[in-house]
Each structure stands twice: as C-alpha cells, then as structure tokens.
Amino acid sequence: MLLTPNAMSRRMRFGLYATTGLIGLFLLLPIVFIVLLSFGSSQWLVFPPPGWTLKWYGQFFSNPEWMSAAAASLKVAVLTTICAVALGLPTAFALVRGRFPGREMLYGLFTLPMIVPLVIIAVAVYALFLKLGYTGTMFAFVVSHVIVALPFTIISIINSLKLFDQSIEDAAVICGASRLQAVFKVTFPAIRPGMVAGALFAFLVSWDEVVLSVMMASPTLQTLPVKMWTTLRQDLTPVIAVASTLLIGLSVLVMVIAAAVRRRNEISA
C-alpha cells in the first residue's frame, strides 16, 4: 500500500521522536538511579531500594568532612569561573580582532586542553606544583581548573564577538565615546550571553572535576568529587549517592539559570 506524503511525514516524525526519547532515556536512567539510591533505606547501594528514608541526607549534612569538601568545591568553582572569564575575555578580543602572526596557532594552543587527555595535563600540573611546593593548596586547585575551563570560556566569548557587528561600536566612537567606553557600554552588553555561557561552562567544568582534583588534593583540602572517590575505595555507602545527587542538582540548577538568562536576552532583543 502506498503512503501519502503526509503519512510518510508523520511516520518519520514519530520515528525521530521515538529515537530521541530512547537516547534521552538511555542517558538519564543512570542519573535517575543515583537520585533514587540516595533515598534508599539500605546501607548498601542496592536497586531497587527496599524502602525510603532521608537518613543519608542527614548523615551527609551533619558530617563536617563532607560539608568541608562541598564548601571547597564551591569555592574552587567560583574562583575558577572568575579567573576564566577575566582571562578569557581579553584573550577572545585578541584572537578575534587582533592582526598578528601566529594568531591561528595561538587559538589552537588555547584550545589544546580540550584535546589532550586530562590525565596528561594532571600529571604535568602536579609535577610543576610539586616542584614549586604548592600541591594541596587552593591556588593549585584554581590554576589547574582554570587550565581546563579556559578553552570553554574563550570559545563562548569568541562566538559572541564574531556575531557582534563592530560597526555599532565604531558608531559609538564617532558619536564621541572613547574606544574603552564604547567597549564597556556597547560591546560588553551585546556579548553578555557569550560571557555568561563561558562563565557557566567554567563553573560546571570545575564543579565536578575529579582527575586534576585528585592530583592536587591533600588531607586537609579535598573537593567533593575527591571525597567521593576516596570514600568509594573504602565503602559503598549511600552517602555517596547523596553527594552525587547534590552535584547533579547544582549542575541542573546552573543549566536552568543559563536557559532563563538566554530566554530573557532573546525577549529583550
């Protein structure tokens, strides 16, 4: 039986939606399982849980070691975000508007941490800070995280700069503003979505980073992923599922904020 074009289109649309739904389910199921395990009554990571409880959340929030690790993760992520944006903004301007030899090579150099295996970067950074005596410090954590977060920030800002019409900035200069005033009052507001996106990417990269953090950690300074890693080697307590849920929850919250900011910018535009 021959199908009409409308029937074929409906079938193709249904197949596309079904495939997309299955892929989404495949990706989300492990996350859902972890969240459910954090409410399970068993002292082991057993699925399905025999019952439901908030006991493990109480243990997590009452344990000073877990809370200290969570606070350290948040502090490192915030400092990494600030540094990544502060370094990425002038770098993006130089790569987009600069006219100097080796610009393309420099762009490849800045994006190299996205290509090089993370463990290689971790070993190299660890060897450097070990020689300088900075391992186990907040400075080492932030610098190492900025290395892997900076490419995401630079790319986001570069994309916004390429979409921005520089003639608008030139018009502001012609109307009497200095070049610096035009950049701050015209260009920065226009590329704000790229800056926000770069900041959010930097925060997320730092928030759940474990390979670099394991190399930089010390007995007195550990991030939440490092604490989870060390605890997993000793015990499969559901408190780890609680920590995982909090990591996921904050990541989702950041993405929701990013979507809200993007929608607000689209409406205002």
Automatic annotation (TrEMBL):
Signal peptide: none
Bilayer topology term: Multi-pass membrane protein
Coarse class of the protein's main subcellular location: membrane
Database matches in InterPro entries: MetI-like, MetI-like_sf
Gene Ontology CC: plasma membrane
Keyword Cell membrane: yes
Family of this protein: Belongs to the binding-protein-dependent transport system permease family.
Protein name as it appears in the record: ABC transporter permease
Organism: Pseudomonas khorasanensis
Lineage: Bacteria, Pseudomonadati, Pseudomonadota, Gammaproteobacteria, Pseudomonadales
